[in-house]
Amino acid sequence: MYIWFTVLAGLALLSLSFIRTLFPYLGDDCAYILRSIKLGIRLTKYKRGKQFYSVLDCFLDAVKSHPNKIFVHFEGREYTYGEVDKQSNKVARALQTEARLKEGDAVALFLVNEPSFIWTWLGLAKLGCPAALLNVHIRSKSLLHCFSCCGAKVIIASEELQGAVEEVLPTLTEQGISVFLLSEACSTPGIKSLSDKISHASDQPMSRDLRANVTIRSTALYIYTSGTTGLPKAAVVTHERVWAASFIQAVCGITSEDIFYINLPLYHSAGFLIGMVGAIERGITIVLKRKFSASQFWDDCRKYNVTVIQYIGETMRYLCNTPRKDNERNHGVKLAIGNGARTDIWTEFLDRFGEIKVRELYAATEGNIGFINYTSKIGAVGRVNFVHRYFFPYTLIKFDTEKEEPVRNSEGLCIEAIAGETGLMVGRITQRSPFIGYAGNRQQTEKKRLRDVRKKGDLYFNTGDLLRFDEMNFVYFMDRVGDTFRWKGENVATSEVADILTLANSILEANVYGVKVEGHEGRIGMAAVTLKEKDFDCSHAYKQVVNYLPAYARPRFIRIQPCLEMTGTFKMKKVKLVEEGFDPAHIEDPLYFLDPEKKSYVPLTEEIYRAIGAREIKL
């Protein structure tokens, strides 16, 4: 009997070893699928419940179960779940009195990373008011556009952003917009201080009746994403989408004992939904940073016993560029969640800072399809599995990058890309995976809809991204198509930049695109331009882009051309320009470089080109 038992045990171990060899990611697949199914059941329960259970309700339950647990660490101060709850009650009551807010009223938040961002949003949620999260770097025309497209009648701004608000104040006043500043006092006519009203308000709980009509399909947020219009688009984020994004932490195996480090801006979906809202869903503690600091990063992680960090590709690169230290592996970080990690930087990051599990994501704020690389496969943004594809149907289709359109067969249907082939990622629009679109922008919403993909009459969401599936079912991000590129973790709309450039007194036309720079993530801005006269007014062009564009959107390189090459449908050609880059040794056209020290565009010499490649010039 003993012999038979030994033989069977040996066969079982041999079989297990064989399965692991044949299916090395089976364990990861099973764990991911099991977690996904559990979370899917939860979301279905929330959808079908008699009374809608929101993330706010989840927060209030956390307050009841652990009111004294620290929710937020910020610049040496601690805020418990109970304290944040009471502060949000005070915000809600102050806004009830001062702004006369009622359920459904949209409110724009023009706030930097600080705890007041969190409790102001919670206060609005208690009133049943959706929040529009404005990028704190936008100014002037973009700021007014972002504010107006969400239909808000109230804007709340951080004290340090008062100058940006004052720039557009005449227009806001003319439109009857209520403007509040998170300060104790404000002497500017047309801007009311809010902090003093909040401090005197009651912290008693708010009635649930104030948000009685909010459902899982109601708009919870407006989060802005760049597009081909040249101005940011307000992606409509429903409460269902908020829940789905909050589950990413759970899918990655984060528990209530973890401590999450947020150094990404809260106006982005990564910092707000995956980071902060995900922390509420898990009931964990977060460490909130005003902005990313490579020099303080690991010291913060050690100080606060951080176990989970967020990143974008640039974050990893900045950390890898810091001077080496003896204690750089001395930390408790076990998991990193983010997107945009380049393979070489990813490898270097692990070599330097230890075996941290990296969970690379692929998703879009407004999109209906996303992936998570839940394995340790370096370079992949996700993995194909049957459960994910059943609930969120998608396909990868052949795409003509020259014509910037899908390749179709004789029947007018799209052609599916095979394994190993780069294609356009599209997600089928269904009730389970909807595409809500952009607030106040039907034209751009329609542009993201793709019809007749697999069969006549079907409808898909066009991600605008080129991906590739390999033979092992891993997913790889290849490139973006259309009129946006990504730099410094921000999407840049090329036509917005072109509009600003053509206001310079010497520039007639501008074709804006992104080019790769060795050792950097994403693509940096470059523009091919034609001139009104023979001479390029370097100084005025510099002033134009600095005054009207955030740093990440400013074209660092200008290429002067006699004429801009167009397609048959009068679209500016970019593919060849992107490929040629900015090397003065291979380009005959005059090239210029944006030099912040000289406050002008200067001729791009081979010496400057070499210094950029050697990272002697900071971009």
TrEMBL record:
SUPFAM superfamilies: Acetyl-CoA synthetase-like. One of its GO terms (cellular component) is plasma membrane. Pfam families: AMP-binding, AMP-binding_C. GO terms for molecular function: long-chain fatty acid transmembrane transporter activity; long-chain fatty acid-CoA ligase activity; nucleotide binding. One of its GO terms (biological process) is long-chain fatty acid import into cell. InterPro entries: AMP-bd_C, AMP-bd_C_sf, AMP-binding_CS, AMP-dep_synth/lig_dom, ANL_N_sf. Residues 61-384 form the AMP-dependent synthetase/ligase domain. It comes from the Eukaryota. Keywords: Cell membrane, Fatty acid metabolism, Ligase, Lipid metabolism, Lipid transport, Membrane, Nucleotide-binding, Transmembrane, Transmembrane helix, Transport. The keyword Transmembrane helix applies. It catalyses: tetracosanoate + ATP + CoA = tetracosanoyl-CoA + AMP + diphosphate; a very long-chain fatty acid + ATP + CoA = a very long-chain fatty acyl-CoA + AMP + diphosphate; a long-chain fatty acid + ATP + CoA = a long-chain fatty acyl-CoA + AMP + diphosphate. The keyword Cell membrane applies. It is a multi-pass membrane protein. Its EC number is 6.2.1.3. Residues 496-571 form the AMP-binding enzyme C-terminal domain. It is found in: Cell membrane. Its main location: membrane. Belongs to the ATP-dependent AMP-binding enzyme family. NCBIfam families: PRK08279.1. This is long-chain-fatty-acid--CoA ligase.
